[in-house]
Amino acid sequence: MTAETSGTAEVAVRVRGLEKSYRNVAVLRGVDFDVARGSVFALLGSNGAGKTTVIRILATLLRADAGSILVDGADVATQATRVRGSISLTGQFAAVDEILSGRENLLLVARLRHVKDPSRVADQLLERFALTEAASRRVETYSGGMRRRLDIAMSLIGDPRIIFLDEPTTGLDPQSRLEVWQAVRELAGNGTTVLLSTQYLGEAEQLADRIAILHEGRIIVDGSLAELKQLLPPATVEYVEKQPTLEDVFLAVVGGDRGTTDVGLGRPAPMREEER
């Protein structure tokens, strides 16, 4: 498989021959991939694989040593200002002000970006990310998932066409992770192009339309989940008793709320009367 997107889908991000070294250590050794507009693209790799370096280069925060990178049709090296006007970046840790309320965080960013009617924009994002009830509370009282949802909401102010999420669920508990997954699904559902870096296999499997595996500075495979599964021998059919996973048990016990019914993880079946 190649890094080319299938069909005639419009490309939001195109990377060719991307290279980056730190002193004598080559981190990226010729990275190639495309991200189709309106899709969720997962850059999957272990710690130190170079995922954050790729995203920092795409976001114009770091200069590549070699390669051609187009983001929303603009060259990252020569049209950085235009690129910045099309994107938003959410890093590995939520960039929110804990002293302010959720609504005040959104209003602050809206005013800094000179958007029209900041109050309306803030209220719409609070509703979209299920934060309306907590809008007046200080962010220091928010859960990890709520902070992440607020962080993503803040990154959407100004209607960026492309959003980069750099390991957005790092350090989150299972419930918070599911909340963030749901937020990413909603982004894609509204037509936002999402480039997601992650080290979690399940995260890429649940969210991505296309997955690229970054290993030792190169993309070694790139395709849909179905295409990647074809790289393995055909599955053999075995009949086994399926036991609930620890995640199933956790979600059943805590009574997961937002996003737990549609992420495909499943829950333990209700006990029959004779089992109670």
From TrEMBL:
Entry-linked InterPro entries: AAA+_ATPase, ABC_transporter-like_ATP-bd, ABC_transporter-like_CS, ABC_transporter_ATP-binding, P-loop_NTPase
Keyword annotations of the record: ATP-binding, Hydrolase, Nucleotide-binding, Transport
Entry-linked PROSITE patterns: ABC_TRANSPORTER_1, ABC_TRANSPORTER_2
Pfam families found in the cross-reference section: ABC_tran
Location of the ABC transporter domain: 13-241
EC numbers on record: 3.6.3.-
Alphabetized GO MF terms: ATP binding; ATP hydrolysis activity
Matches recorded under PANTHER family: ABC TRANSPORTER ATP-BINDING PROTEIN (PTHR42711), ABC TRANSPORTER ATP-BINDING PROTEIN NATA (PTHR42711:SF5)
Family: Belongs to the ABC transporter superfamily.
Protein name: Daunorubicin/doxorubicin resistance ATP-binding protein DrrA
Source species: bioreactor metagenome
